[in-house]
Amino acid sequence: MRRAICGAALALSVATAFAQQRSTYEEYQRMTAESAPIELYEMAGEELWKKPQGPKNVSLERCDLGMGPGVVKGAYARLPRYFSDADRVMDLETRLLHCMMTLQGRGRAEATKRVFGNADRSSEFELLSAYVAGQSNGMPMRPGTDHPREKAAFELGRKLFFHRAGAWDFSCASCHGEEGKRIRMSDLPVLYKAEYARPLMSTWPAYRVSTSSFITLQWRMNDCYRQMRMPEPGFGSDTTVALITFMTVTAEGATYRGPAIKR
Q: What residues contact 78, with CB distance under 8 A and at least 6 apart?
């Protein structure tokens, strides 16, 4: 009896401590959200969107993100999707790269020389992603699901999510496949389930407080592979786009609430 009572008391103590920690983290998120400079990234991204660049000296204002040339409002909420002019499924960053190459005449090597920035200097893709994504705030997420290529990308992403490989025999599901997991104060949601994928995918890209920088989903995919001790995928590769497609389609119907903040 005494052991049972002690066990119950210990369980209650652990649950109370966890609840207090969760409350502290939620307060931390609220306070950081009030001072996060997300609007500054969006403003810088809008300037970059309208800035003539490349051999053709034109801006990205005629870039078709899926809603028609130059239409930004609501475009992010409909990505990833199939684009017939490229004959592939693209997420936002992959599509931006396509427009840099086709509209501005820039070479892939030059345009992707610096795809991930830091606290001192953001990359073009991060600033542009902040601007474009912000134009979908409050809209339902409706990625492409009807075209055969979109269905194939979803299936590839699902397989990659559960595929174990690398020196540590990890997969995406190693961290995001079971309920109740977390790293320090960060929860590890089960991303193949809609109820967990929706609140997460509806807040990317995001400002990361711990690094004082704006980060994107292409960065997140790349860094996850790095942490799993696997070869880092190419920027905008079929691998990263498929994973983003899988998780975004799983989150379909969520209201987009980004760009947001992350720890």
A: 66, 67, 142, 143, 144
Choosing from 63, 172, 175, 224, the catalytic residue is 224
Bridge partner residues of 187 (DSSP): 182
224 noted as active-site residue: yes
Would you tell me the crossing angle of helices 124-134 and 92-102 to the nearest 10 degrees?
A: 110
- Which tokens in the block code for residue 145? 């699901």
> pTM here?
0.85
193 Rama sector, left if φ>0, alpha if ψ -120 to 50, beta otherwise: beta
Strand partners, 213: 208
CATH H-level superfamily of 38-262: Cytochrome c-like domain (1.10.760.10)
Distance CA 190, CA 197 (A): 7
Q: Rounded to an integer, what is the distance from CA 2 to the centroid of its chain? A: 50
Map out the domains of the chain as residue ranges.
1-35, 38-262
Euclidean distance between CA atoms 222 and 236, whole angstroms: 10
Per-residue pLDDT of the chain (263 residues; tens, 9 = 90+): 555 555 555 445 534 544 444 444 445 445 454 556 899 999 999 999 999 999 999 999 999 999 999 999 999 999 999 999 999 999 999 999 999 999 999 999 999 999 998 888 999 999 999 999 999 999 999 999 999 999 999 999 999 999 988 888 888 888 887 777 776 667 778 899 999 999 999 999 999 998 899 999 999 999 999 988 888 899 999 999 999 999 999 999 999 999 999 88
Annotate 2-71 with DSSP letters as a single string. Answer: HHHHHHHHHHHHHHHHHHHHHHHHHHHHHHHHHH--HHHHHHHHHHHHTS-BTTTTB-STT-BSSSSBT-
